[in-house]
Design goal:
By secondary structure, the chain is mostly helical. It has one domain (about 20-145). It has helices at about 20-40, 45-70, 75-90, 100-105, 115-120, 125-145.
Length: about 160
């Protein structure tokens, strides 16, 4: 049995990672700020970024949002859940019924909210970009945000006491 201790920074996850909720919220906001111009000003962005970058940034943003909301979930579980969700949404784009297309074209004040969340058409490259973006976020969390910090002694097996 694991003992998980919450600190003022944020809860400790099942894999011993302590997620700083302020940092994760900042990363989500940063990735939204970087990614939205990709959609809203596509004519001013590099073509490679328009075609591929948005999907990778979207997956990165979702990974950090998932870590922010579900701070106790192990990193590898967050990665798997995120990729399954992204793949499911992408595969759902093969379904083109009138009602779901109406949802995809839903906008608020000209902002294509339905299309950003559900997408419009299936592309194999999107699956690769989701994998790349989520994988990059996972590695950033493991190598940069956590660094070489070892698991805290608060994450011990109760039977060892």
């Amino acid at each position: 049995m694991r003992v998980l201790i919450d600190s003022p920074i944020g809860p400790t996850g099942a894999d011993g990672i302590q997620r700083n909720r302020w940092l994760y919220a900042g990363l989500v906001i940063f990735l939204i700020a970087v990614g939205l111009p990709n959609r809203l000003m596509a004519d001013r962005m590099p073509p490679f970024m328009v075609v591929y970058g948005g999907d990778a940034l979207w997956a990165m943003m979702l990974y950090f949002a998932f870590g922010l909301i579900f701070a106790r979930v192990a990193s590898w579980k967050a990665l798997v859940i995120l990729l399954v969700g992204c793949y499911a949404v992408e595969i759902s784009q093969l379904y083109q019924a009138d009602w779901i297309n109406a949802v995809r074209h839903f906008s608020v004040a000209g902002f294509p909210l339905g299309g950003i969340v559900l997408g419009y058409g299936f592309l194999w490259s999107d699956l690769g970009m989701y994998t790349l973006g989520a994988g990059a976020a996972y590695l950033i969390e493991r190598w940069v945000l956590v660094g070489k910090r070892k698991r805290s002694t608060d994450d011990t097996d109760i039977t060892d006491l």
